[in-house]
């Protein structure tokens, strides 16, 4: 069972559309995230590849499962399309979605030619929509990737520091 889950986790960490680009990051920089992977509970991971052009993984870090979480990591591998072709366009889409759902403030934390890391703080959100998120959108040659830490409460400064370290470790292979 542990071997199967380890192989599955390895696959989801490298999830990408069929063009072979992969997003890699160091999950060990967040001990709670590492504990989820080491724990081997498949209920903590929701992998969705129904649309091969938009593959998602949601990993519950705190909570009962990937369906009932307090803190989670979202991983998305996306093939650019007419609507979203660049990091900037995806960031704009995410920010518009945040504003549509509830009053949101955004702050860019880091930016380079191939990626943007930003924070979303929202208030007055409907139940289930996390009011705190930290995202990194990264462009490969043929794909776009997103890593997002989501929290339904207020994360501790230590949690946010770990999130930033994990996001900063992300690279395209």
Structure report:
With 173 residues, the chain is an alpha+beta fold. Helices cover 28% and strands 36% of the residues. The protein has four helices and nine strands; from the N terminus they run H-E-H-E-E-E-H-E-E-E-E-H-E. It has a seven-stranded antiparallel sheet with strand order 2-3-4-8-7-6-5, with helices on both faces. It has a two-stranded antiparallel sheet with strand order 1-9. The protein is globular, with a radius of gyration of 15 Å. The protein starts with a helix and ends with a strand.
Low-pLDDT runs: 1-19
Mean pLDDT: 90
Straight-line distance between termini: 28 Å
Helix segment tally = 4
Q: Biggest β-sheet, characterized?
A: 7 strands, antiparallel
- Which structural class is indicated by helix and strand composition? alpha+beta
Spatially, the strands of the biggest sheet line up as 2-3-4-8-7-6-5
Residue share in helix:
25-40%
The gross shape turns out to be globular
Q: How much of the sequence is in beta strands?
A: 35-45%
* Secondary-structure element series: HEHEEEHEEEEHE
Strand segment tally: 9
Radius of gyration: 15 Å
Short key terms for the protein model shown above:
173 residues; seven-stranded antiparallel sheet; 4 helices; 9 strands; 36% strand; globular; disordered N terminus
Briefly say what this structure is.
By secondary structure, this protein is α+β, with helices and mostly antiparallel strands. It contains four helices and nine strands. The strands form two sheets. Strands 2-3-4-8-7-6-5 form a seven-stranded antiparallel sheet, sandwiched between helices. The protein has a two-stranded antiparallel ribbon with strand order 1-9.
């Amino acid at each position: 069972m542990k071997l199967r889950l380890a192989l599955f986790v390895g696959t989801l960490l490298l999830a990408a559309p069929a063009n072979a680009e992969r997003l890699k990051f160091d999950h060990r920089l967040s001990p709670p995230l590492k504990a989820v992977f080491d724990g081997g509970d498949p209920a903590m991971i929701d992998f969705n590849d129904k649309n091969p052009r938009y593959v998602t993984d949601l990993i519950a870090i705190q909570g009962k499962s990937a369906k009932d979480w307090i803190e989670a990591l979202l991983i998305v591998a996306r093939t650019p399309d007419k609507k979203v072709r660049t990091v900037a366009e995806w960031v704009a889409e995410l920010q518009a979605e945040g504003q549509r759902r509830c009053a949101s403030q955004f702050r860019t934390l880091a930016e380079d030619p191939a990626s943007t890391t930003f924070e979303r703080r929202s208030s007055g959100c409907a139940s289930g929509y996390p009011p705190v998120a930290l995202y990194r959108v990264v462009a490969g040659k043929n794909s776009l990737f997103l890593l997002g830490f989501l929290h339904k409460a207020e994360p501790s400064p230590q949690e946010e520091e770990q999130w930033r370290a994990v996001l900063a470790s992300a690279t395209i292979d």
